[in-house]
Write a structure and sequence with these properties.
With 435 residues, this protein is an alpha/beta fold. Helices cover 28% and strands 19% of the residues. α8 (258-273) links the parallel β6 and β7. The longest helix has 18 residues, at 191-208. The radius of gyration is 21 Å and the shape is globular.
Length: 435
């Protein structure tokens, strides 16, 4: 719990293990009417005049240590994973931002109030780390918190926003992830007012440095259970202050059970799929890390997460040991055709057009006039899934070419798009070209 008694949405996974056994039904219930934005106001993610610069025209891609390593990180681990991104070809596919999460710093600020790297973990300092990443053609990301302390009780930026932003700029940081643990709410102020003020201070401080620093805002994650109207309002101002935002729980940690990992993927998909109307190109909903390569997940489960995240135009940020990826995990992460759906220039988040107990179908328009259609079997038995062109919202041409982006199989349909005998926990992803 933070100092303001706000539960840390991301650092724990308590409670989701209990729903692992019933993950097949997580998609069955339709989203409540309140999940849709108020038609009387503009979608929350439309950046206002004077908003944070659009530094992420496509969903960010890269690597972060947290889900796999947590606080067991150091300079060698970060640089080894960076080299593995380059060596494996994943950097060439777009995974270029390497972000150091919580626990990188010393427990106390330096004599001038400055943040300092933990000398045992990062003996050469963070400027050196950034230099090494830049020499590999990668970008340098770093973690901080807008509260008094980070989630793991390292110094937060509250009261030091200008100094910390200027320090990050001197270190040549390209990406800042700002968490929201340990945020004190002063008497007479609401929780939302406090978060908006503190994230606003960090946003302005980063802009004032003159360095283009992509800004990841975690504020919405602390409002997911405060009611949809508040949650969506927080997403709205988060989109003015930064380029992407965490919307809910962290995905499961490496030490979690396989069932908990799968349950967390389904849970994060389910809440993020409801937010499509609140996202716009350059302002991205972030349902957290990709777990491909993590122990315990099947290839079908890894592929489902990758396909669903691509359909939602989500940031593709891996959190695993890149140097130890299996060939299957490397193939999932590096699938150029699936990545192209995620990185499509139209920037649309796919929407759920059909669902029942244990399945969902998503449709996403693409820039060249094609559509992506995903048929997701979240259940525990094989199923044949289908959707009509009309239900999916496709142009009514009466003839469609289908390209399975995982198997490579090509087929044709006059109306109904079918995926036969989809295995449990699997997703079939088609690129559909109307004739």
């Amino acid at each position: 719990m933070s100092h303001s008694s706000v539960p840390r949405i991301g650092r724990t996974f308590a409670g989701l293990t209990a729903v692992a056994a019933c993950s097949a039904g997580l998609l069955a219930a339709p989203a409540p009417a309140s999940a849709a934005p108020d038609p009387g106001r503009a979608p929350g993610a439309r950046p206002a005049a004077g908003a944070y610069p659009n530094l992420a025209p496509r969903p960010p891609m890269g690597w972060n240590n947290w889900s796999y390593y947590m606080c067991d990180l150091n300079e060698k681990i970060v640089l080894d994973n960076a080299r593995a991104l380059v060596r494996s070809g994943l950097a060439e596919r777009g995974y270029r931002t390497v972000t150091v999460d919580d626990c990188w710093m010393s427990r106390q600020r330096g004599p001038r109030g400055e943040l300092t790297a933990d000398p045992a973990k990062f003996p050469h300092g963070m400027a050196y780390l950034g230099q090494q990443l830049h020499r590999m053609g990668l970008k340098f990301g770093i973690y901080e918190d807008v509260g008094t302390l980070t989630c793991e009780k390292y110094p937060g930026s509250l009261g030091h926003f200008r100094e910390d932003a200027e320090l990050f700029a001197r270190w040549k940081v390209d990406y800042v992830k700002a968490d929201g643990c340990n945020v004190p709410v002063a008497p007479g102020h609401t929780k939302e007012e406090t978060y908006r003020d503190l994230y606003g201070q960090m946003s302005r401080a980063l802009r004032a440095t003159g360095r283009p620093i992509t800004f990841s805002v975690s504020a919405p994650a602390y409002f997911q259970f405060d009611g949809d109207s508040v949650w969506h309002r927080v997403i709205g101002w988060s989109a003015e202050l930064g380029n992407l935002w965490r919307g809910g729980r962290d995905v499961a940690l490496q030490k979690s059970t396989p069932a908990a990992k799968w349950s967390s993927i389904v849970y994060n998909f389910r809440y993020n799929a409801r937010l499509a109307a609140l996202q716009s190109p350059g302002r991205w909903n972030d349902p957290d890390f990709l777990l491909a390569g993590d122990s315990g997940l099947t290839r079908q489960e890894m592929q489902s997460q990758m396909s669903l995240w691509a359909m939602m135009a989500a940031p593709l940020i891996s959190s695993t040991d890149i140097g130890d990826l299996s060939p299957a995990a490397r193939k999932v992460l590096g699938n150029k055709k699936v990545i192209a759906v995620d990185q499509d220039a139209l920037g649309a988040q796919g929407t759920v057009v059909q669902q029942d107990d244990g399945s969902a179908v998503l449709a996403k328009p693409l820039k060249n006039g094609d559509w992506a259609i995903a048929l997701f079997n979240s259940g525990d038995t094989p199923r044949t899934l289908s959707v009509t062109a009309d239900t999916a919202g496709l142009p009514q041409t009466g003839s469609y070419r289908l390209h399975d982006l995982v198997s490579g199989h090509r087929t044709h349909s006059d109306d109904t798009i079918v995926a036969r005998e989809v295995p449990p926990h699997s997703t079939v992803l088609y690129r559909v070209t109307p004739d």
